[in-house]
Amino acid sequence: MAFTDFDLLVVGDANPDVIVSGAPRRPAYGQREHLVDTGDLVLGGSGAITACGAARLGLRVAFAGRVGDDPAGAFVLDALRRRGVDVSACVVEPGAATALTVILADGQDRAILTAPGCLGRTSAGDVPPGLLARAAHVHVSSFYLQPLLAEGVPELFRAARAAGATTSLDTNDDPAGRWEGLEEVLPLTDVLLPNEREALAIAGVADLGRAVRELAARGTTPVVKCGAEGAMTIVDGEPLHVPAPAAKDAGEGANDAVDTVGAGDSFDAGLIAARRRGLPVRRSLEVAVACGTLSTRAAGGTAAQPTWEEATS
């Protein structure tokens, strides 16, 4: 492959996350105040977390997305820069509000409340054409939160592939629950990165092995995140399952998960980094699972993302 300025270009969402742990399942209204265990203001957004994780793993990373010209947008851009991510292609929209997410965490479960702000106006046109020619891999996040971007992903991926880049997609959740619009996208997607629930929904089946086969038949390679159970993909027409590492093998503190927010995005970063380094399929999944596991050591999606040495030791 010809020389590129960036190993990875991430196109997608970036926003502050307010993570509240120990919140009641049914918050009391009527101006009642409830004390919780912890509250953290951290960098959020699937795209931003993936970008930071990849940079932490040693990749040269650029991020293209959209924020408002408000304090939340400044927070996002500063956080990305401090983690070594190039944000020169990020659009700062005058007079607009940056997306904001509040996460109510209860152990391993969470409720996610997002005010989309200008996120819905992110489009493939926000990506400078010359940037695609400078990236070896293009990753798109949060397909269903960015309808204009979703419409343009096929064209974006065609242009990326024409420039010699590989592609990946993490749809994340579909708030509408329809899971539509992927027919043209999947054959242009080298790697699809859903979690188990998303894979079943996209494939429209109830069995994960069948879902992996169904998604592969649509022209992509699915790599499914299965949480504490590891990950699954397909090799030579057969599902391949890689278990999560035992706590003692996952690194110091990995057996005491503090926060699972962003673990799937750190998994994405690990998978992309491993593929860029030319690792075989099973080893790439092992690295990705380790990255997701290790990221849970601290609150928020980026605070505990591992280095390449940590992920592979």
UniProtKB/TrEMBL annotation:
A GO molecular-function annotation: kinase activity
Domain of life: Bacteria
Pfam families: PfkB
InterPro entries (alphabetical): Carboh/pur_kinase_PfkB_CS, PfkB_dom, Ribo/fructo_kinase, Ribokinase-like
Record flagged with keyword Isomerase: no
Keywords assigned: Kinase, Transferase
GO biological process: phosphate-containing compound metabolic process
Domain Carbohydrate kinase PfkB: from-to ranges: 8-307
Family affiliation: Belongs to the carbohydrate kinase PfkB family.
PANTHER family (alphabetical): RIBOKINASE, SUGAR KINASE
The protein's name: Carbohydrate kinase family protein
Species, as recorded: Nonomuraea rhodomycinica
Upper lineage: Bacteria, Bacillati, Actinomycetota, Actinomycetes, Streptosporangiales
